[in-house]
Design goal:
By secondary structure, the protein is of the alpha/beta class. It contains six helices and seven strands; from the N terminus they run βαβαββαβαβααβ. Strands 3-2-1-4-5-6-7 form a seven-stranded parallel sheet, sandwiched between helices. Helix 1 crosses helix 6. The longest helix has 29 residues.
């Protein structure tokens, strides 16, 4: 039996998810969830105790998590960020956004609750500044992030033996942000954004806060003006 605590991270093939996996790897057995099998395998090869978990999160079933009997940390980092004004965004985009950003999170958590309960585990939802305020053209994405916030709040109330943390980063220097800036018609300026590793350190701070501390919400903003 693996004596190291176990952490499962979704979206681990890049961006914040990969940075979280790298931050947890020195102390945890990490399960790397994502769709890019090659990227997951390459990351697993670089980490001391990791295994890839290729999965389509919107189709996850009990069979996909059958080997996870005890789970200390579950980090939800996968997501999509389609932008557009309400008059432009069709129902299919709303449904796809909610399916990945909210429904898949709820279902994976539900399937892993027995394993989380055995460990008195910790669930971390990587949210967004869009989960705290809404801007024009961000309706469907912000709605999904407000819903993710509600999910985390409900889970915290229903599962008092678990710790549940929502992290609200501002703009992060990832490929997703590159797409956002392209949509906005602006330059991608990573020096003005949070680094993925900075967000990962915030996740690590919540995880390592100690058994007597429960960091329920963390908000991060870039120090440089955007």
């Amino acid at each position: 039996m693996n004596e190291r605590p176990t952490a499962l991270i979704t979206g681990a093939s890049g961006g914040v998810g990969q940075a979280v996996a790298e931050a947890l790897a020195p102390t945890h057995h990490v399960i790397l969830g994502g769709r890019n099998e090659r990227a997951l395998a390459e990351l697993a090869a670089r980490l001391p105790d990791a295994r890839p978990w290729p999965v389509e999160l919107t189709e996850v079933t009990q069979a996909d998590v059958a080997g996870v009997d005890r789970l200390d940390v579950l980090v939800h980092s996968a997501g999509m960020s389609p932008l557009g004004r309400i008059e432009e965004v069709p129902a299919s985009t709303w449904r796809a956004t909610m399916e990945l950003n909210v429904v898949a999170v709820a279902e994976l958590t539900r399937l892993l609750l027995p394993a989380l309960r055995r460990a008195n585990g910790h669930v971390v939802c990587v949210n967004s500044g869009a989960g705290q305020r809404v801007r024009a053209g961000w309706g469907s994405y912000a709605a999904s992030k407000f819903a993710l916030r509600a999910f985390a709040d409900a889970l915290r109330e229903e599962e008092p033996e678990l710790r549940v943390t929502t992290v609200y980063p501002g703009r992060v220097a990832t490929e997703m942000q590159r797409g956002v800036r392209q949509h906005e018609g602006g330059a991608f300026e990573p020096d003005k954004y949070l680094a993925p590793a900075t967000v990962a350190r915030a996740v690590l701070a919540a995880v390592n806060a100690g058994p007597d501390a429960h960091l329920t919400e963390l908000t991060l903003r870039p120090s440089a003006a955007t």
